[in-house]
Every structure is written in C-alpha cells, then in structure tokens.
Amino acid sequence: MSSAENRLSVPDCLFCRIVAGEVPADVVASTERAVAFRDINPQAPVHVLVVPRDHHADVTQLAAVDPGLLADVVALADEVAQEHAGGQFRLVFNTGAEAGQSVFHVHGHVIGGRRLGWSPA
Ligand code: 5GP
Ligand code: ZN
After folding, report:
1. Interacting residues of 73 by C-beta distance below 8 A, sequence separation 6+
2. Which of 62, 41, 61, 38 is nearest to 50 (CA)?
3. Any residues with Cβ below 6 Å from ligand 1, and which?
4. How confident is the model at residue 5, as a pLDDT?
5. Which domains does the chain have, with CATH numbers?
C-alpha cells in the first residue's frame, strides 16, 4: 500500500485524518510511507509523533503485518531525533489503554531535547 488511493485508512481515526491533511498538524518530516508531527501536548522540548501513513492499531500489529513499515517509522524517528534532539532520544510506543495508548493508530513518541529521567509508571 504505497499510493494514496489504496492506503489503509479508518474514517474516524484522528491520525488517519492528520495523514490525509484533514486535521492540521505541525509536520516536521515525512516520507512516502510515514509522517512526523509535533505532539499537541509536549512532555519535553522535543516531542514528535511518528506514524505510518497506513492505519495499524498498535506496534505489535504493525510488526506482524508490515515489519518493513515499522522499520520505516523507526528510521524517520531517528531522522527527526538527529535533526531536533542531537540523536539522543526515547522512542515510546504505548500499547493498549492500560499502558496509556489513547489513539489507536500506531505512533512512536520521539522524546528528547533534555536529560530524561526514568519513571515511566
Ligand atoms: P498515546 O496516549 O496514544 O500514546 O499518544 C497520543 C498522543 O497524541 C498524546 O501524546 C496526545 O497529546 C497527542 N494528540 C492527541 N490529539 C492530538 C492532535 O489533535 N494533534 C496532535 N499533534 N497530537 C495529538
Ligand atoms: Zn488511522
């Protein structure tokens, strides 16, 4: 699924709508298969969400269905982190509501721009 015409998309999905340009976002980088945009509620000086253009609910489903696309998402996260966070960053995929996932279109949080503590609970 690489062209916009046959892309995997879910009508009421917020991140599908951002990918389609129907909901505005501060896009910092994009490729044919993935988009990176700033989180609306940043938790650090750099807090960017990286999503595949195709809809997959979470990282485990993406890995199972299209592992190459997961690699593309990670590569774009690295590109964003190199440019905006000196290449040192945390990449978080919240998976499931109990783990803090609120948007069920897989997204990696690229977090950086300051020294990060370790208290994910
Ligand atoms: P999750 O909680 O699913 O891991 O992450 C969802 C993230 O999406 C949250 O950090 C939240 O701040 C962000 N978010 C929610 N709605 C919007 C929006 O409309 N635009 C942007 N750019 N980020 C959003
Ligand atoms: Zn979606």
Report:
1. 34, 50, 51, 52, 62, 106, 108
2. 38
3. 14, 25, 37-41, 49, 94, 100-103
4. 62
5. 3-112 (3.30.428.10)
Residue nearest to atom 21 of ligand 1 (CA): 40
Please tell me the distance from the alpha carbon of residue 81 to that of residue 12, in angstroms, as a whole number: 29
- pLDDT given at position 119: 84
Give me the residues of the chain with pLDDT under 70, please.
Answer: 1-5
pLDDT in tens, 37-52: 999 999 999 999 999 9
Half-sphere exposure of 21 (CA within 13 A, CB side): 2
DSSP lists the bridge partners of residue 110 as 48, 91
From the CA of 59, how far away is ligand 2's center (Å)? 13
Provide the 10 A C-beta neighbour count for residue 94. 18
Q: Quote the pLDDT of residue 102.
A: 98
Q: Is 107 a catalytic residue?
A: yes
Ligand 1 centre from 98 Cα, in Å?
16
